[in-house]
Write a structure and sequence with these properties.
The complex is a heterodimer of chains A (226) and B (169). Chain A is of the alpha/beta class and 226 residues long. Chain A has helices at 16-28, 50-64, 76-85, 102-107, 140-147, 171-183, 194-203, 212-219, and strands at 2-5, 32-35, 70-72, 92-94, 118-122, 151-152, 188-191, 209-211. In chain A, strand 1 (2-5), helix 1 and strand 2 (32-35) form a beta-alpha-beta unit. In chain A, helix 2 (50-64) crosses helix 3 (76-85). Chain B has two domains: 4-92, no CATH class; 97-158, no CATH class. Helices cover 49% and strands 0% of the residues of chain B. At the A-B interface, helix 2, helix 6 and helix 7 of A face helix 6, helix 7 and helix 8 of B.
Amino acid sequence: MEYGYYPGCSLTGSAKKLDQGVRQVCKKLGHNLTEIPDWNCCGALEYGDRNELMSISGENLKKAEGIHKEIVVPCPACYKNLKDADSDKSFNILSPLELLNNENLLKMEQKNDLKGQVFFPYYGCLLMRPEGSAIKNKNIMEDAISTFGGDIDGEKMKDRCCGGNQLFLNKWVTEKLSNLILTKSKGTIVVFCPFCHMAMKTFAEGRKVIYLTDLLLYVMGENKSL
Amino acid sequence: MQTTDHIMELAGHRQEDFSVCMGCKVCASVCTINDLDIDMNPQEFLLKLFMGEEIKADNPLVRYCTSCYRCASACPWQIRIPEVVRAVKESLGIEARFEKAFKKSLDIWGRVYEPFVVIMSAPDLLMGGYIKFLPKWMEYAGFHFPHKVKRIRTSHTLKKGSSSKEGRS
Protein backbone atom coordinates (compact mmCIF):
# COMPACT_ATOMS: atom_id res chain seq x y z
CA MET A 1 0.00 0.00 0.00
CA GLU A 2 1.12 3.58 -0.69
CA TYR A 3 1.58 5.98 2.22
CA GLY A 4 2.82 9.51 2.65
CA TYR A 5 5.68 9.67 5.12
CA TYR A 6 6.49 12.37 7.66
CA PRO A 7 9.79 11.44 9.37
CA GLY A 8 10.08 14.54 11.58
CA CYS A 9 13.32 16.25 12.56
CA SER A 10 14.77 13.79 15.06
CA LEU A 11 14.45 10.93 12.59
CA THR A 12 16.85 12.76 10.28
CA GLY A 13 19.42 12.95 13.13
CA SER A 14 19.53 11.31 16.55
CA ALA A 15 16.70 8.88 15.76
CA LYS A 16 17.98 7.93 12.30
CA LYS A 17 17.88 4.31 13.43
CA LEU A 18 14.11 4.52 13.90
CA ASP A 19 13.74 6.09 10.45
CA GLN A 20 15.75 3.33 8.80
CA GLY A 21 13.88 0.68 10.79
CA VAL A 22 10.45 2.02 9.87
CA ARG A 23 11.37 2.18 6.19
CA GLN A 24 12.77 -1.37 6.23
CA VAL A 25 9.85 -2.90 8.15
CA CYS A 26 7.30 -1.13 5.92
CA LYS A 27 9.08 -2.41 2.83
CA LYS A 28 8.93 -5.93 4.26
CA LEU A 29 5.19 -5.50 4.86
CA GLY A 30 4.76 -4.40 1.25
CA HIS A 31 4.16 -0.72 1.98
CA ASN A 32 5.70 2.11 0.00
CA LEU A 33 6.52 5.29 1.93
CA THR A 34 6.93 8.60 0.08
CA GLU A 35 8.07 11.64 2.04
CA ILE A 36 5.80 14.67 2.10
CA PRO A 37 7.61 17.12 -0.18
CA ASP A 38 9.44 19.91 1.64
CA TRP A 39 8.05 18.87 5.03
CA ASN A 40 8.83 21.11 8.00
CA CYS A 41 9.14 20.67 11.77
CA CYS A 42 5.86 19.95 13.59
CA GLY A 43 6.78 22.25 16.50
CA ALA A 44 7.03 19.32 18.95
CA LEU A 45 6.12 20.42 22.51
CA GLU A 46 7.92 23.74 22.33
CA TYR A 47 5.17 26.25 21.57
CA GLY A 48 2.84 27.84 24.10
CA ASP A 49 0.56 29.28 21.46
CA ARG A 50 -1.67 26.46 20.22
CA ASN A 51 -2.66 28.39 17.09
CA GLU A 52 0.98 28.83 16.20
CA LEU A 53 1.72 25.15 16.86
CA MET A 54 -1.22 24.04 14.77
CA SER A 55 -0.22 26.36 11.93
CA ILE A 56 3.35 24.95 11.92
CA SER A 57 2.07 21.36 11.96
CA GLY A 58 -0.74 22.17 9.54
CA GLU A 59 1.78 23.43 6.95
CA ASN A 60 2.75 19.80 6.46
CA LEU A 61 -0.82 18.78 5.77
CA LYS A 62 -1.10 21.57 3.18
CA LYS A 63 2.02 20.18 1.51
CA ALA A 64 0.47 16.70 1.49
CA GLU A 65 -2.86 17.87 0.04
CA GLY A 66 -3.75 16.21 -3.21
CA ILE A 67 -0.78 13.84 -2.90
CA HIS A 68 -1.34 11.73 0.21
CA LYS A 69 -4.41 10.89 2.26
CA GLU A 70 -2.74 8.35 4.52
CA ILE A 71 0.36 9.61 6.28
CA VAL A 72 2.71 7.52 8.40
CA VAL A 73 4.30 9.46 11.26
CA PRO A 74 6.74 7.53 13.49
CA CYS A 75 7.65 10.15 16.14
CA PRO A 76 4.87 10.27 18.79
CA ALA A 77 5.12 14.06 19.27
CA CYS A 78 4.84 14.66 15.50
CA TYR A 79 2.05 12.08 15.32
CA LYS A 80 0.03 13.92 17.98
CA ASN A 81 0.63 17.35 16.45
CA LEU A 82 -0.28 16.31 12.91
CA LYS A 83 -3.38 14.52 14.19
CA ASP A 84 -4.44 17.61 16.16
CA ALA A 85 -3.77 19.88 13.17
CA ASP A 86 -6.00 17.69 11.01
CA SER A 87 -9.10 19.02 12.76
CA ASP A 88 -11.52 18.12 9.97
CA LYS A 89 -10.03 14.61 9.62
CA SER A 90 -9.13 15.05 5.96
CA PHE A 91 -6.18 12.72 6.40
CA ASN A 92 -5.55 9.41 8.06
CA ILE A 93 -2.52 10.03 10.28
CA LEU A 94 -0.99 6.73 11.30
CA SER A 95 1.76 5.60 13.62
CA PRO A 96 3.76 2.74 12.05
CA LEU A 97 2.51 0.75 15.06
CA GLU A 98 -0.96 1.02 13.50
CA LEU A 99 0.27 -0.76 10.39
CA LEU A 100 0.98 -3.81 12.52
CA ASN A 101 -1.69 -6.32 13.50
CA ASN A 102 -1.85 -9.94 14.63
CA GLU A 103 -2.43 -11.07 11.07
CA ASN A 104 0.65 -9.48 9.50
CA LEU A 105 2.79 -10.31 12.56
CA LEU A 106 1.95 -13.99 12.12
CA LYS A 107 2.69 -13.80 8.40
CA MET A 108 6.06 -12.14 8.99
CA GLU A 109 9.02 -14.12 7.77
CA GLN A 110 10.63 -15.48 10.98
CA LYS A 111 14.30 -16.35 11.01
CA ASN A 112 14.98 -15.74 14.73
CA ASP A 113 12.74 -16.10 17.75
CA LEU A 114 12.72 -14.33 21.10
CA LYS A 115 12.34 -17.40 23.33
CA GLY A 116 13.89 -17.14 26.77
CA GLN A 117 14.27 -13.36 26.52
CA VAL A 118 12.45 -10.81 28.66
CA PHE A 119 11.26 -7.51 27.17
CA PHE A 120 9.71 -4.38 28.63
CA PRO A 121 7.49 -2.79 25.98
CA TYR A 122 7.54 0.89 26.88
CA TYR A 123 5.16 3.24 25.02
CA GLY A 124 5.59 6.41 27.07
CA CYS A 125 2.96 9.13 26.92
CA LEU A 126 1.94 10.47 23.56
CA LEU A 127 1.14 7.16 21.86
CA MET A 128 -1.22 6.33 24.74
CA ARG A 129 -2.98 9.63 25.42
CA PRO A 130 -4.93 11.85 25.09
CA GLU A 131 -7.50 9.39 23.77
CA GLY A 132 -8.31 11.48 20.68
CA SER A 133 -4.78 11.18 19.33
CA ALA A 134 -3.71 7.86 20.86
CA ILE A 135 -3.03 4.67 18.93
CA LYS A 136 -5.94 2.24 18.87
CA ASN A 137 -4.22 -1.01 19.82
CA LYS A 138 -2.36 -0.16 23.02
CA ASN A 139 -0.94 -3.68 23.28
CA ILE A 140 0.60 -3.98 19.84
CA MET A 141 4.19 -4.13 21.11
CA GLU A 142 3.23 -6.92 23.55
CA ASP A 143 1.46 -8.71 20.68
CA ALA A 144 4.62 -8.49 18.57
CA ILE A 145 6.91 -9.69 21.36
CA SER A 146 4.73 -12.61 22.39
CA THR A 147 4.04 -13.64 18.80
CA PHE A 148 7.76 -14.34 18.46
CA GLY A 149 8.11 -16.09 21.81
CA GLY A 150 9.43 -13.30 24.05
CA ASP A 151 8.35 -12.76 27.66
CA ILE A 152 6.82 -9.46 28.81
CA ASP A 153 7.58 -7.52 31.97
CA GLY A 154 6.74 -4.10 33.45
CA GLU A 155 3.18 -3.84 32.14
CA LYS A 156 2.14 -1.32 34.81
CA MET A 157 4.91 1.06 33.78
CA LYS A 158 4.37 0.97 30.03
CA ASP A 159 2.56 4.31 29.83
CA ARG A 160 4.33 6.17 32.63
CA CYS A 161 6.29 9.30 31.77
CA CYS A 162 10.09 9.12 31.48
CA GLY A 163 10.36 12.92 31.55
CA GLY A 164 12.22 12.82 28.24
CA ASN A 165 11.26 16.35 27.26
CA GLN A 166 12.84 17.70 30.46
CA LEU A 167 16.22 16.06 29.76
CA PHE A 168 17.86 19.26 28.54
CA LEU A 169 15.97 21.54 30.94
CA ASN A 170 15.93 19.77 34.31
CA LYS A 171 17.77 16.50 33.94
CA TRP A 172 17.11 15.43 37.54
CA VAL A 173 13.41 15.27 36.60
CA THR A 174 14.14 12.86 33.73
CA GLU A 175 16.54 10.86 35.90
CA LYS A 176 14.03 10.42 38.71
CA LEU A 177 11.10 9.56 36.45
CA SER A 178 13.15 7.20 34.26
CA ASN A 179 14.59 5.42 37.28
CA LEU A 180 11.10 4.87 38.65
CA ILE A 181 10.20 3.08 35.42
CA LEU A 182 13.49 1.20 35.26
CA THR A 183 13.28 -0.15 38.80
CA LYS A 184 9.77 -1.50 38.21
CA SER A 185 10.57 -3.32 35.00
CA LYS A 186 13.15 -5.75 33.74
CA GLY A 187 14.57 -6.99 30.47
CA THR A 188 15.35 -5.29 27.20
CA ILE A 189 13.52 -1.98 26.90
CA VAL A 190 11.52 -1.76 23.69
CA VAL A 191 10.42 1.76 22.74
CA PHE A 192 8.96 3.62 19.80
CA CYS A 193 9.64 7.22 20.85
CA PRO A 194 12.96 9.04 20.28
CA PHE A 195 12.52 11.00 23.57
CA CYS A 196 11.95 7.77 25.52
CA HIS A 197 14.87 6.09 23.76
CA MET A 198 17.25 8.84 24.84
CA ALA A 199 15.93 9.01 28.42
CA MET A 200 16.11 5.24 28.87
CA LYS A 201 19.50 5.01 27.19
CA THR A 202 20.85 7.78 29.44
CA PHE A 203 19.71 6.30 32.74
CA ALA A 204 19.42 2.54 32.19
CA GLU A 205 22.51 0.80 33.48
CA GLY A 206 23.31 -2.54 31.89
CA ARG A 207 20.04 -2.83 29.98
CA LYS A 208 19.55 -2.72 26.25
CA VAL A 209 17.26 -0.07 24.78
CA ILE A 210 15.92 -0.84 21.32
CA TYR A 211 13.21 0.35 18.98
CA LEU A 212 10.45 -2.12 18.15
CA THR A 213 11.68 -1.94 14.56
CA ASP A 214 15.09 -3.33 15.70
CA LEU A 215 13.25 -6.25 17.28
CA LEU A 216 11.17 -6.94 14.17
CA LEU A 217 14.19 -6.73 11.88
CA TYR A 218 16.03 -9.18 14.15
CA VAL A 219 13.11 -11.60 14.00
CA MET A 220 13.05 -11.30 10.19
CA GLY A 221 16.79 -11.95 10.04
CA GLU A 222 17.65 -8.48 8.76
CA ASN A 223 19.59 -7.63 11.94
CA LYS A 224 22.09 -10.16 13.24
CA SER A 225 21.57 -9.32 16.90
CA LEU A 226 19.30 -7.30 19.12
CA MET B 1 1.38 39.83 29.66
CA GLN B 2 -0.44 37.39 31.96
CA THR B 3 -4.17 37.63 31.92
CA THR B 4 -6.57 34.74 32.06
CA ASP B 5 -8.03 35.78 28.70
CA HIS B 6 -4.62 35.87 27.05
CA ILE B 7 -3.58 32.48 28.45
CA MET B 8 -6.84 30.89 27.41
CA GLU B 9 -6.42 32.34 23.95
CA LEU B 10 -2.88 30.94 23.71
CA ALA B 11 -4.00 27.53 24.94
CA GLY B 12 -6.94 27.49 22.56
CA HIS B 13 -9.43 27.14 25.40
CA ARG B 14 -12.51 29.22 26.22
CA GLN B 15 -13.58 30.70 29.56
CA GLU B 16 -16.38 28.13 29.85
CA ASP B 17 -13.88 25.29 29.38
CA PHE B 18 -12.28 26.29 32.68
CA SER B 19 -15.53 27.07 34.47
CA VAL B 20 -16.73 23.48 34.05
CA CYS B 21 -13.88 22.24 36.25
CA MET B 22 -15.70 20.89 39.31
CA GLY B 23 -12.59 20.46 41.40
CA CYS B 24 -12.68 16.66 41.29
CA LYS B 25 -8.86 16.72 41.55
CA VAL B 26 -8.50 13.61 39.40
CA CYS B 27 -5.70 15.55 37.67
CA ALA B 28 -3.87 15.77 41.01
CA SER B 29 -4.20 12.04 41.53
CA VAL B 30 -2.38 11.27 38.28
CA CYS B 31 0.02 14.21 37.87
CA THR B 32 3.53 12.95 37.09
CA ILE B 33 5.07 15.78 39.13
CA ASN B 34 3.90 13.97 42.27
CA ASP B 35 6.41 11.24 41.35
CA LEU B 36 9.09 13.88 41.97
CA ASP B 37 7.98 14.10 45.62
CA ILE B 38 6.41 17.50 44.92
CA ASP B 39 2.75 17.84 45.88
CA MET B 40 1.06 19.05 42.75
CA ASN B 41 -2.58 19.75 42.17
CA PRO B 42 -3.19 21.06 38.63
CA GLN B 43 -6.77 21.88 39.62
CA GLU B 44 -5.45 24.60 41.96
CA PHE B 45 -3.43 25.93 39.03
CA LEU B 46 -6.58 26.13 36.88
CA LEU B 47 -8.53 27.72 39.72
CA LYS B 48 -5.85 30.39 40.18
CA LEU B 49 -6.03 31.19 36.48
CA PHE B 50 -9.81 31.27 36.52
CA MET B 51 -9.75 33.68 39.46
CA GLY B 52 -7.28 35.89 37.61
CA GLU B 53 -4.45 35.27 40.09
CA GLU B 54 -0.88 35.53 38.91
CA ILE B 55 1.01 32.29 38.29
CA LYS B 56 4.69 32.69 39.06
CA ALA B 57 7.66 31.26 37.18
CA ASP B 58 8.64 29.09 40.16
CA ASN B 59 5.34 27.22 40.17
CA PRO B 60 6.34 23.51 39.96
CA LEU B 61 3.93 22.88 37.11
CA VAL B 62 5.53 25.71 35.12
CA ARG B 63 9.01 24.42 35.89
CA TYR B 64 8.59 20.68 35.61
CA CYS B 65 5.46 19.76 33.61
CA THR B 66 6.55 16.96 31.27
CA SER B 67 3.51 17.22 28.96
CA CYS B 68 2.65 13.61 29.81
CA TYR B 69 -1.09 14.34 29.34
CA ARG B 70 -2.07 12.04 32.22
CA CYS B 71 -4.14 14.94 33.66
CA ALA B 72 -5.79 15.82 30.35
CA SER B 73 -6.57 12.18 29.74
CA ALA B 74 -8.17 11.74 33.17
CA CYS B 75 -10.03 15.09 33.17
CA PRO B 76 -13.79 14.56 32.73
CA TRP B 77 -13.87 17.82 30.76
CA GLN B 78 -10.78 17.09 28.66
CA ILE B 79 -9.07 20.30 29.70
CA ARG B 80 -5.66 20.21 28.01
CA ILE B 81 -3.74 21.19 31.14
CA PRO B 82 -0.21 20.69 29.68
CA GLU B 83 -1.11 23.16 26.93
CA VAL B 84 -2.42 25.63 29.51
CA VAL B 85 0.91 25.27 31.33
CA ARG B 86 2.83 25.88 28.10
CA ALA B 87 0.64 28.95 27.48
CA VAL B 88 1.54 30.28 30.94
CA LYS B 89 5.24 29.70 30.19
CA GLU B 90 4.83 31.59 26.93
CA SER B 91 3.04 34.47 28.66
CA LEU B 92 5.81 34.64 31.27
CA GLY B 93 8.45 34.63 28.52
CA ILE B 94 10.20 31.61 30.03
CA GLU B 95 12.44 29.97 27.47
CA ALA B 96 15.55 27.93 28.25
CA ARG B 97 18.56 28.10 25.95
CA PHE B 98 17.64 24.70 24.50
CA GLU B 99 14.10 25.85 23.71
CA LYS B 100 15.37 29.08 22.16
CA ALA B 101 17.79 27.13 19.98
CA PHE B 102 15.01 24.78 18.91
CA LYS B 103 12.83 27.67 17.73
CA LYS B 104 15.76 29.50 16.17
CA SER B 105 16.58 26.41 14.13
CA LEU B 106 13.00 26.26 12.95
CA ASP B 107 13.19 29.94 11.99
CA ILE B 108 16.38 29.40 9.97
CA TRP B 109 15.78 26.04 8.31
CA GLY B 110 12.14 25.17 8.97
CA ARG B 111 13.39 22.07 10.73
CA VAL B 112 15.31 21.29 13.89
CA TYR B 113 18.95 20.87 12.98
CA GLU B 114 20.27 19.02 16.02
CA PRO B 115 23.99 19.99 15.70
CA PHE B 116 22.92 23.66 15.82
CA VAL B 117 20.74 23.08 18.88
CA VAL B 118 23.60 21.25 20.64
CA ILE B 119 26.08 24.04 19.86
CA MET B 120 23.67 26.77 20.97
CA SER B 121 22.90 24.86 24.18
CA ALA B 122 26.57 24.02 24.83
CA PRO B 123 26.99 26.31 27.88
CA ASP B 124 24.10 24.56 29.64
CA LEU B 125 25.32 21.12 28.56
CA LEU B 126 28.86 21.84 29.79
CA MET B 127 27.80 23.42 33.06
CA GLY B 128 24.90 21.06 33.65
CA GLY B 129 26.93 17.86 33.92
CA TYR B 130 25.86 16.32 30.64
CA ILE B 131 29.37 15.47 29.48
CA LYS B 132 29.33 12.18 31.41
CA PHE B 133 26.52 10.97 29.16
CA LEU B 134 28.53 11.38 25.95
CA PRO B 135 29.70 7.73 25.78
CA LYS B 136 26.06 6.60 25.97
CA TRP B 137 25.00 9.18 23.38
CA MET B 138 27.53 8.18 20.73
CA GLU B 139 24.90 6.19 18.88
CA TYR B 140 22.94 9.41 18.34
CA ALA B 141 25.89 11.20 16.79
CA GLY B 142 26.25 11.58 13.05
CA PHE B 143 26.83 14.50 10.79
CA HIS B 144 24.49 15.70 8.11
CA PHE B 145 24.05 19.08 6.49
CA PRO B 146 20.90 21.02 7.36
CA HIS B 147 18.06 20.86 4.91
CA LYS B 148 16.38 24.19 4.33
CA VAL B 149 12.64 24.01 3.90
CA LYS B 150 11.42 26.34 1.16
CA ARG B 151 7.94 27.06 2.41
CA ILE B 152 7.26 27.84 6.03
CA ARG B 153 5.66 30.84 7.62
CA THR B 154 4.89 30.81 11.30
CA SER B 155 3.72 33.52 13.63
CA HIS B 156 6.91 32.91 15.65
CA THR B 157 8.95 33.97 12.63
CA LEU B 158 6.99 37.20 12.62
CA LYS B 159 7.39 37.68 16.37
CA LYS B 160 11.19 37.75 16.25
CA GLY B 161 12.59 40.31 18.59
CA SER B 162 10.00 39.82 21.29
CA SER B 163 11.61 39.83 24.71
CA SER B 164 12.06 36.61 26.63
CA LYS B 165 14.06 35.59 29.63
CA GLU B 166 15.90 32.35 30.17
CA GLY B 167 14.31 29.91 32.58
CA ARG B 168 16.37 27.07 33.96
CA SER B 169 16.79 25.43 37.29
